[in-house]
Amino acid sequence: MQTELLSPAGDIEAAYSAFYFGADAVYLGLRQFSARAEAVNFTPAELDEITAYAHSIGKKVYVAVNTVMQESELPALLETLAVCERCRADAVIVQDWGVARLVRRVFPTLVLHASTQMAIHNLAGALAMKRMGFSRVVLARELSLPEIRQIQAESGLEVEVFIHGALCYSYSGLCLFSSMTTGRSANRGKCVYSCRDTFRLNGRQYHPFSMKDLALEKEVLKLPGLSLKIEGRKKTALYVGAVTDYYRRILDTGKIDAGLTDNLKQIFARPWTQLHFKGKNKAVTEPDFVGHQGLPIGTVDRVFSHTITFKPTRAVARYDGIQIDVPGSEKPFGFSAENLVVGGKKVFEASAGQTVTLTLPPHHPFIQKGSPVYLSSSTRVKGAYPYTKPRPGAFKNRTPLDIDVFIAANRVTACANGTSVSIDGSFTTAQQPEKTRTAIEKAFAKTGETSFSLGMLQVHNADDLFVPASVLNELRRQLYEAVILPERPIELPSTPVRTKPTTDPKWSIKTDDWDLARHLNPADYDELTLVITPRTTPADLAGFPADKVRLALPVIMRPEKPFAAVVSTLVQAGFHKWEIANPAGLTLVPKQADIALDGMVPILNTQAAAMADELGIGRVTLSVEDTADNVASLVSRIKSVCLIRYQDVPLFLSANCVRENDCRDCPRGRIEMSMTNGKGSFTVISENCQTIVTDNRPYYIKEAPPADWYRIDFCYRRYTPDQAKDVVKTVKAGGEINHSFDGNFHKRFAT
């Protein structure tokens, strides 16, 4: 593919701004099922307008339908996909396996892009997406340039990567913090950005997970042939235009315009990072401040009687936004520069290098001499990105209509799509017969506000009769008003059904602690699921009950090659029961294996379960995010289903390291740290350059609907054998577990 600059559009103004400043495509969401539910988003009419406009100038529009859906939402989802098809979207961006199945079976003309919410982080995952019918994969943001290039070269898919914008601390799609603590699920577009919270960790109060913004800048020149994606569907048209212009010029000239960099930082910018593009990077968070700071333009020289004096490095105009760092505050103090004084006189604009005095607003905080000053909003910059757009209604997707016109001496008739209209009259021989067809074509080409365009026109006028333009125009109006395009029936495709009721659930125990597993009593479980590492050997499995063991791939497998080798070795040794927690497992595990799907791949509807069944997965594990009513509807219908009853839920699963040390001196062994945000207490686990955060309360479902399998997890946090045995006994008996919680199970998702 050709290199594509892909810009965000939270509303139609942002879309027009993006196209004006050089975007090759935009991505956007409708009012439902968008992972940026808090953006303005698009109505069907606006989607139709922007796709028609984009296609008229050779550009593309992708629609994000990238949340997970509960069973009751599937009919509305069908309507959303029908809108995408009707409005001729160039692709839909998808996370939910059920959405992918519906697109393939009901809307096969829609192109599938695999959302970054699928956490595709290796070649095996990309190949799995190809197997599922996707033509493009949006890679996890955490990947390095060599990893990106390998997937681009070997997957046979279009590849899309993020180049600029906000970052999540966790791998996208694998963050459950917001959902499990507030009910507002990131996988359903309602994230409260828990990663931006203040936490007490390592003996101090700060923002250990608040990410800087991604900014690859000139590094994008190393990514030819990819789709280069800018994050920001909640940003303004001004921001979208500025950042699109910034990268358009880098791509076209190979150079960075420092003035445009400054513009961006005045509009919106956290500190910038290239994340792990060049390899492991520790400097990816901003622990002391959150939100927009602006462009640094100086430091406070003097504070006196509710005024500050400083020398700006950039021009400052009246009503520009100013921010000043305040000790002990996580956000700078901001105010409008309403009173600019230079040399004792009020001025409209102060030049760079002049000594400027600004009046502080009433009730301002204490400001120290030497505090950094930022330009956070500039009148000049706001006016630097004007864009043009078509008049409302100028662009519309239209259906070509083939029309036959029959002219007789006493009647003219127009027919299209099984509909005909006629006007009686007295029509005489035309003085210039050659102009009759031109007049008819001109009349019927005026489709106005209708949803039609003129297709093939056949004129039947054997006697070369003349029809006045007024009659032709009325005939056209009546025809276009009368024609009704048939809507094709849209139904949910059938799914595999349960053939027998669930009566006696079996019990599974899953753990990544093999030492603990050896102390568990095989009589207490029907299946033992062991999470493998790149160093697992067949000898490690000696002593475990072979008929009860299932081997599990971890959620994240970077690098992929060692896991592929271990899987191959273990399969050759006779281990054919596997669990996968990421689409990559579909590529690494043989198709003929007995495959179960972990709940980290969210299955919240029967269409998603049916997709899993078609991929050869024999059992699905329902998501711990889900609600009791939806779970009950699924366990009664899915062929083979597992329900997690006890788990230390991974709230963050991150490639970023929380340790405050130099990587060169890090032993990389496992450490655990306690943390609180004032609302809950958590455990932070750091091991092998990966950070996992769990709630100190285990997730526990005391009473659950009958399922084929119930599961107890001992992953991430560590248990003594006695603690684990006590948990197993209590959960199986339906007893009480102190200080546990049940997530969203006994409530609804927050909206």
Write structural notes for this entry:
By secondary structure, this protein is an alpha/beta fold. 24% of the residues lie in helices and 25% in strands. The chain contains 18 helices and 40 strands. The strands form 8 sheets. An 8-stranded parallel β-barrel has the order 1-2-3-4-5-6-7-11, surrounded by 7 helices. It has an 8-stranded parallel barrel with strand order 28-29-30-31-32-33-34-40. α4 packs across α16 and α11 (434-444) crosses α12 (469-482). The longest helix has 17 residues, at 237-253. It is flat, with a radius of gyration of 31 Å. It starts with a strand and ends in an 18-residue tail after the last helix.
Detail the topology: elements first, then pairings:
Layout: E1 4-9, H1 12-20, E2 25-29, H2 44-56, E3 60-65, H3 74-86, E4 91-94, H4 97-106, E5 112-114, H5 123-131, E6 136-138, H6 145-154, E7 158-165, H7 177-182, E8 199-201, E9 204-206, E10 213-215, E11 227-230, H8 237-253, H9 258-267, E12 272-273, E13 295-299, E14 302-304, E15 307-310, E16 316-317, E17 321-324, E18 333-336, E19 340-342, E20 345-346, E21 349-350, E22 356-359, E23 372-377, H10 379-382, E24 399-407, E25 411-416, E26 419-424, H11 434-444, E27 452-460, H12 469-482, E28 506-511, H13 514-519, E29 527-531, E30 549-552, H14 561-572, E31 577-580, H15 584-588, E32 594-597, H16 606-614, E33 617-621, H17 628-635, E34 641-647, E35 650-654, E36 671-676, E37 681-687, E38 690-695, E39 699-700, E40 709-714, H18 721-733
Parallel strand pairs: 1-2, 1-11, 2-3, 3-4, 4-5, 5-6, 6-7, 7-11, 10-12, 24-27, 28-29, 28-40, 29-30, 30-31, 31-32, 32-33, 33-34, 34-40
Antiparallel strand pairs: 7-10, 8-9, 13-23, 14-15, 15-22, 16-21, 17-18, 17-23, 19-20, 19-22, 24-25, 25-26, 34-39, 35-38, 36-37, 37-38
